[in-house]
Design goal:
This protein has two domains: about 1-205, Rossmann fold (3-Layer(aba) Sandwich), CATH 3.40.50; about 215-275, no CATH class. Helices cover about 30% and strands about 30% of the residues. It has helices at about 40-45, 85-95, 100-110, 125-135, 155-170, 180-190, 205-215, 250-260, 275; strands at about 1-10, 15-25, 30-35, 55-60, 70, 145, 175-180, 190-195, 200-205, 215-220, 235-240, 240-245, 265-270. Helix 2 (about 85-95) packs across helix 3 (about 100-110). The radius of gyration is 22 Å and the shape is globular.
Length: about 280
């Protein structure tokens, strides 16, 4: 659906992007993980043709006049208008269908109640994000780009937004989501790009990439602290809870050993940090 090929961009302060390449496919949620200032927003602005790269190119496989819908940085809403009025105004600006049936359909699509008539300034951050996504969906784009959409949301709002993004991807929209927090991208993304200092340092299917880069796990289960097979990997031990560093041994192998020895494992949670993920796999 979209290919970015060796995009580079510099400002007077220095190089922001260095030969960045990525590919977006229909129905796939791709994540862009990196620290604040790593180049995520600049990349998004190039993909949306708001900024011109110094080198590289963007290829799009879409016949639509406006193939990309995006929410970059904070949602730009008219806070004195209600959700329907915001959507109608943006539809008129963009030349999209502005009839009531079309606009109410977009509001339903992102889970906003039609009966809500008060000004957007009264909305929660999660509701504002949903309205911004509804605006981005005007003209039925093939590609949706969301820049730090989880910022400022509580856990319930994050879970709700992740479900919305998955629902949109099921409609064969190619979605690219950025964040500096791994947990949200782990839950929502099929494929992950890790960017650091303007370069893509790692990429791959999300779970495969995590399995290759993460070595510390916390396991809970009955009497796990007594398991002999875990002793060489043990970092911390509590009642029915252990933390392991299994570098060099797949966590799946340790889980098989535990089960074969009769132990019951209730959960296995990776200890994920951005610092681990920005170390190149071939380093």
């Amino acid at each position: 659906m979209l290919n970015a090929i060796k995009l580079s961009k510099s400002y007077t302060s220095g190089k922001v992007l260095d030969a960045v390449s990525l590919s977006l496919k229909p129905g796939t949620i791709s994540g862009l993980l990196g620290r604040n200032g790593a180049g995520k927003t600049t990349l998004f602005k190039i993909l949306c043709k708001l900024v011109t790269p110094d080198s590289g190119r963007v290829q799009q496989d879409s016949k639509k006049a406006k193939p990309i819908g995006a929410v970059i940085e904070e949602p730009g809403l008219y806070t004195y208008l209600n959700a329907y009025e915001n959507l109608k105004l943006f539809a008129q600006i963009q030349g999209a269908p502005a009839d009531r049936a079309s606009l109410e359909n977009y509001l339903r699509q992102v889970g906003l109640p039609l009966e809500r008539k008060d000004a957007v300034r009264n909305f929660s951050m999660g509701m504002k994000q949903r309205l911004a996504i509804a605006i981005a969906l005007l003209n039925a784009p093939d590609i949706l780009i969301l820049d730090e959409p989880f910022s400022g949301l509580d856990p319930t709002g994050v879970a709700s937004l992740i479900q919305l993004i998955k629902t949109l991807a099921a409609q064969k929209i190619a979605i690219l989501v950025s964040s500096h927090l791994m947990s949200e991208l782990q839950k929502s993304c099929d494929y992950l790009y890790v960017i650091d200092q303007g370069k893509i340092v790692n990429e791959g299917p999300t779970q495969s990439l995590l399995n290759a880069l993460i070595s510390v796990y916390t396991l809970t289960g009955t009497a796990l602290e007594t398991a002999q097979c875990l002793k060489p990997y043990l970092l911390k031990s509590e009642f029915n809870r252990v933390t392991l560093n299994c570098e060099g041994t797949p966590i799946s192998e340790l889980l098989k050993r535990l089960i074969s020895e009769g132990f019951e494992v209730h959960s296995c949670v990776p200890d994920i940090s951005l610092e681990q993920l920005i170390i190149p796999l071939d380093a």
